[in-house]
Write a structure and sequence with these properties.
- The protein is an alpha+beta fold.
- It has four domains: about 190 residues, Hypothetical protein af1432, CATH 1.10.3210.10; about 150 residues, Beta Polymerase, domain 2; about 140 residues, no CATH class; about 80 residues, Alpha-Beta Plaits (2-Layer Sandwich).
- About 50% of the residues lie in helices and about 15% in strands.
- The chain has 28 helices and 23 strands.
- The strands form seven sheets. Strands 3, 4, 5, 6, 7 and 8 form a six-stranded mixed sheet that branches.
- Helix 2 packs parallel to helix 4.
- The chain is extended, with a radius of gyration of 35 Å.
- The two termini are about 60 Å apart.
Length: about 750
């Protein structure tokens, strides 16, 4: 983010040059870990950046080049490689200085150029709305980050420095930038385990968003710190003495809760400042994992632990890689003090998260420690992108995962998996593998079979039951918690809808063309290729597949497309078959304009069955091509279908039932009974004995005192004959006065 104003070269440029040189000298002093060649490359990048930003002054009054140097310095603290530092120094040169990506490739190589390009802001692109632009910007940033995590590390360093100098910006911009930082960048830093950066971004945003509250809390914490200084020193001395006696070397540091986290706790739990008891804490660094648990024992012998305040994040690491033992004890004068026990390696990961990879690499180039930190989430970003074209939808999916209040569960093979709180068996299945998610038909928790929407709890052993014939259910979208599961389900449903709509459209257009005297659709070869190009220009479709899918979805009418196709075929000298033409028109249905379609219930999203009349095999039916809804099947006697027929007759097609339907169909029945004890149970039993399933039952709210009441059922039956047998079964019950099929759900 550039916070600068291009100005004329200052009258006295020497101090500015000296400031920049001093800043760069400080950066170079941190680069010993790179080696001579790496330092040379960084200096080369600095020269280009310095020349590109020459004469540009930030709103704070500093030379603009001091900003890229500060960003690179933060990256050097994380021990990022030379390529990342070069990109940090040049991160604004494409956007602000007219230097092209190809020039960077020629001078510094493709890797550095890709990093700089990934960091370039997208303000120059035109979007329909500001929100769309922001969503698209973050989508591209996150995808660049998924391909190379150094992009987001440089971006976070850039945002951190800009936030630290935000005072010089106008107040409205300060508020907007701070809100964006708090909503977007701080959660990403947290998700990647960059806790130090996360805390800094939160506190700086809080300072500019709520300056009065920030100052009040700052003064309150300073006073409390002064009052409790002696107590904390006493605690530290007692601990150092105890561990010295135990012959265990440790490092001990004081830790203070950030102002934003104090404010958030006060706000969410409606507490006063005096009621927040965990402002101060201690961090103990030990040499090994075993020592962490030994240190816990030493502490609990010294001070009484607070019940329920122990957490083992070593055995079960947090979702962003964080590991530590946490315990809260009652110290001197009744002061609650939280302790964190961790190794040096854990401490590096706790503060630097994904960036710890380069810190470890700098110390030991061959180690693979921390390679996997954050990679699972980063990979999921690419997975979500593959199934999501719309930027806002992508961002919605990603936001779900940014603050994962995690729940930790086990696979049957004892592998620990972390998921957001509220995650279900379906979320777990997609976390294992997308193929497992797509084939999920049930699940077991701790050995007991449960519905797939069951929420998981800490410690659950989860097993997914799959079937080769199962597929994602649209209803899953109502309860899944993870962005990965949601995007996978939506992608499958969209793909399935497109495939089925394409197949239906092909069938409808073929039948409409037969009615015009042509046996089948022309192929895409030879002269017909040019014919299809003309047809696509006429319809405005991008491809034959899109045109056929639009016909299947009802966005286009097959007869209109067929008539245009006939004209184009005529231009090529092809004439209709007179015998086929007369036969098709002779057998054509009187009220519809296209050929018939056979339905059997196996259709997924391209064919729907009208809820207004709930047709079942055996009913006389018609099909209506809804605009974008696909084919909707209605009973011929349906009042809704009758209105549509008068209004939009060209969208109706002839449909017939298959001889062997493959599923059950829902039907509404109304059972009028004599009110009495146990009557509902007897009716339900009669329906079950007729081998029909009850999907829903409804009865009047006020039934006491009435002699007769209506019980309304939604039942699943095979066909009309099966429904009649259910009605006959119910009619034999002495307390049943009448049974009828409900013609329309409007009777409810």
């Amino acid at each position: 983010m550039r916070e600068a104003t291009p100005t004329a070269t200052p009258k006295n440029p020497l101090p500015a040059k000296q400031a920049a040189a001093a800043s760069f000298a400080t950066l170079v002093s941190k680069l010993d870990y790179l080696g001579p060649e790496g330092i040379r490359e960084v200096k080369k990048a600095y020269k280009l950046a310095d020349a590109a930003h020459l004469g540009v002054i930030r709103k704070s009054g500093e030379p603009y080049i001091t900003h890229p140097i500060a960003v690179a310095s933060q990256c050097a603290e994380w021990k990022l490689d030379a390529q990342a530092l070069m990109a940090a120094l040049m991160h604004d040169v494409i956007e602000d200085s007219g230097i092209t990506k190809s020039e960077l490739v020629n001078q510094f190589g493709s890797n550095v150029a890709e990093l700089v390009d990934g960091l370039t802001k997208l303000d120059k692109l035109q979007f329909n709305t500001q929100e769309e632009g922001q969503a698209e910007s973050f989508r591209k940033m996150l995808l660049a980050m998924a391909r190379d995590v150094r992009v987001i590390l440089i971006k976070l360093a850039d945002r951190s420095h800009n936030m630290s100098t935000l005072e010089s910006m106008p107040s409205d911009k300060r508020a907007a930038i701070s809100a964006e930082t708090l909503e977007i960048y701080a959660p990403i830093a947290h998700r990647l385990g960059l806790n130090q950066t996360y805390r800094e971004l939160q506190d700086l945003s809080f300072q500019f968003l709520k300056p009065w509250r920030y100052e009040v809390l700052k003064k309150a914490v300073a006073k409390a710190r002064h009052r409790r200084r002696d107590l904390m020193k006493k605690v530290q001395l007692e601990i150092e003495t105890a561990f010295h006696k135990a012959k265990m070397p440790i490092q001990i540091f004081g830790r203070e809760k950030t102002l934003f986290s104090i404010y958030k706790k006060m706000d969410q739990k409606h507490l006063s400042f005096a009621q927040v008891t965990d402002i101060y804490g201690m961090r103990i660094i030990v040499t090994s994992i075993t020592d962490c648990y030994t240190a816990l024992g030493v502490l609990h012998q010294m001070y009484n632990p607070v019940p329920g305040k122990f957490k083992d994040h070593i055995a079960i690491a947090k979702i962003n890689g964080y590991q530590s033992l946490h315990t809260t004890v009652v110290g001197p004068a009744g002061l609650n003090v939280e302790f964190q026990m961790r190794t040096e390696a854990m401490h590096v990961v706790a503060e630097s998260g994904v960036a710890a990879h380069w810190l470890y690499k700098a110390k030991s180039p061959d180690t693979e420690q921390s390679d996997r930190l954050g990679t699972q989430w980063l990979q999921s970003l690419l997975d979500i992108q593959n199934e999501t074209v719309d930027a806002n939808e992508f961002w919605d999916h990603v936001k779900v995962d940014l603050f994962p209040d995690a729940v930790y569960v086990f696979t049957p093979k004892s592998r620990i998996m972390a998921l957001p709180r509220g995650a279900t068996i379906v979320d777990f299945a997609y976390a294992v593998h997308s193929n497992v998610g797509d084939r999920t038909m049930g699940g077991k928790i701790n050995g007991e079979q449960v519905p797939v929407r069951t929420e998981l709890r800490n410690g659950d052993i989860v097993e997914v039951i799959t079937s080769s014939v199962s597929s994602p259910n649209p209803a899953w979208l109502d309860f899944v918690r993870t962005g990965r599961a949601r995007s996978k389900i939506r992608h499958y449903l969209k793909t399935q809808a497109l495939s089925e709509s394409h197949e239906l459209g092909n069938k409808l257009l073929t039948q409409a063309l037969r009615s015009e005297g042509f046996e089948q659709l022309p192929d895409m070869l030879g002269n017909h290729q040019h014919l299809w190009e003309k047809l696509l220009r006429f319809t405005g479709s991008k491809s034959q597949e899109e045109l056929l899918a639009d016909i299947g979805l009802g966005k286009r009418v097959a007869t209109i497309v067929a008539k245009r196709l006939v004209v184009l075929l005529g231009e090529l000298g092809e004439k209709p078959d007179v015998l086929l033409l007369s036969r098709e028109r002779f057998t054509s249905h009187e009220t519809v304009s296209q050929g018939g379609v056979i339905v059997d219930g196996s259709e997924n999203v391209s064919v729907q069955y009208g809820r207004c009349c709930r047709p079942i095999p055996g009913d006389e039916i018609v099909g209506y091509l809804g605009r974008g809804e696909g084919l909707v099947i209605h009973r011929e006697a349906c009042a809704v279908a009758s209105k549509l027929l008068h209004k939009d007759s060209e969208r109706f097609i002839r449909v017939e039932w298959s001889d062997e339907p493959v599923k059950t169909f829902e039907a509404n029945i109304v059972v009028t009974v004599t009110n009495g004890k146990g009557v509902l149970a007897r009716v339900a039993s009669a329906i079950a004995s007729a081998e029909a399933d009850i999907s829903l039952v409804n009865m009047a709210d006020e039934v006491s005192g009435q002699e007769a009441i209506d019980l309304r059922f939604l039942i699943a039956v095979r066909d009309l004959q099966h429904l009649n047998s259910v009605i006959a079964n119910l009619s034999r019950i002495p307390t049943v006065l009448q049974v009828r099929r409900q013609i329309s759900t409007r009777e409810h």
